[in-house]
């Protein structure tokens, strides 16, 4: 069994895998890390490996305290990945984006793949059908857009994600919801259209915390899986073991 852990900018997600099967998913706050991992290992004592991808500010020692119980592996740029990294600044490419690219490469061979991760930030990562990682884009996620409108204006309220009643906002609150949500959807569809116009044999993978909210609003056909990063972690770790 493998315990995969994704340390994001806001929360931690984890999953226990036996082979390619997911036994259980978990979501918790960063200050709960050690206590929650202890409980997971109590429930799944046959876990042999703890595999971590981190872009958040959690100390490695929090994970290393479990080294006596199981093998702990932190993915880094030095690991083996199933794609050719053509990024102009490869060492600055986030490990989370590399894991997503690896999962897309392994799960959808010989296709052009666009991975869209809708979380704190929204990231776009493109891997061509020859397994070349070419890059993508980064922009603010839904929550950041709401917070930015509030933090950088004098009077706009801080709202939380809600379905806009119409694209024509008939109040300040509805205007904000329309601008944030519809603008976000138009952005994603615009990127997808641009990629589609340049590449055939194409698949779009939508993941991240806001994936389910967005999936039914996009005009383009996509493969939506909010836990794609955790699954990709497990697959990339197995790829590493097989190719070391």
Automatic annotation (TrEMBL):
Active-site residues from the entry: 96 (proton acceptor)
Keyword Cytoplasm: yes
Subcellular location: Cytoplasm
GO terms, molecular function: ATP binding; metal ion binding; pantothenate kinase activity
InterPro entries reported in the protein's UniProt record: ATPase_NBD (IPR043129), Type_III_PanK (IPR004619)
Domain of life: Bacteria
Signal listed as a keyword: no
GO cellular component annotations of the record: cytoplasm
Positions annotated to bind K(+): 117
A Pfam entry, by short name: Pan_kinase
Binding site for substrate: 87, 94-97, 172
Alphabetical keyword list: ATP-binding, Coenzyme A biosynthesis, Cytoplasm, Kinase, Metal-binding, Nucleotide-binding, Potassium, Transferase
Cofactor note text: A monovalent cation. Ammonium or potassium.
Pathways involved: Cofactor biosynthesis; coenzyme A biosynthesis; CoA from (R)-pantothenate: step 1/5
Enzyme class: transferase
Binding site for ATP: 6-13, 120
A biological process from GO: coenzyme A biosynthetic process
EC number: 2.7.1.33
Catalyses which reaction(s): (R)-pantothenate + ATP = (R)-4'-phosphopantothenate + ADP + H(+)
Family the entry assigns: Belongs to the type III pantothenate kinase family.
Family annotation (PANTHER family): TYPE III PANTOTHENATE KINASE
Role summary: Catalyzes the phosphorylation of pantothenate (Pan), the first step in CoA biosynthesis.
Assembly with partners or alone: Homodimer.
Protein name in the entry: Type III pantothenate kinase
UniProt organism field: Flavobacterium johnsoniae (Cytophaga johnsonae)
Gene symbol of the encoding locus: coaX
């Amino acid at each position: 069994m493998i315990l995969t852990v994704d340390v994001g900018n806001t929360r931690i997600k984890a999953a226990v895998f036996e082979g390619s099967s997911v036994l259980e998913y978990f979501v918790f706050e960063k200050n709960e890390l050690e206590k929650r991992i202890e409980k997971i290992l109590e429930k799944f004592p046959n876990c042999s490996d703890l595999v971590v991808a981190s872009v958040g500010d959690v100390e490695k020692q929090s994970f290393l305290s479990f080294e006596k119980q199981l093998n702990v592996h932190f993915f880094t740029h030095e690991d083996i990945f199933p794609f050719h990294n053509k990024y102009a600044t490869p060492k600055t490419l986030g490990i989370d984006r590399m894991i997503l690219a690896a999962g897309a490469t392994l799960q959808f061979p010989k296709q052009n793949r666009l991975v869209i991760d809708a979380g704190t930030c929204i990231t776009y990562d493109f891997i061509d059908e020859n397994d070349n990682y070419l890059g993508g884009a980064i922009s603010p996620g839904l929550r950041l857009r709401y917070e930015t409108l509030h933090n950088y204006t004098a009077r706009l309220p801080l709202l939380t994600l809600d379905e806009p009643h119409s694209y024509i906002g008939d109040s300040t609150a509805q205007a904000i919801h329309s601008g944030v949500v519809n603008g976000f959807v138009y952005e994603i569809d615009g990127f997808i259209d641009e990629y589609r116009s340049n590449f055939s044999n194409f698949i779009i993978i939508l993941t991240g915390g806001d994936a389910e909210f967005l999936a039914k609003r996009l005009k383009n056909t996509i493969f939506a899986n909010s836990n794609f990063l955790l699954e990709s972690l497990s697959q990339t770790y197995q790829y590493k073991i097989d190719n070391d």
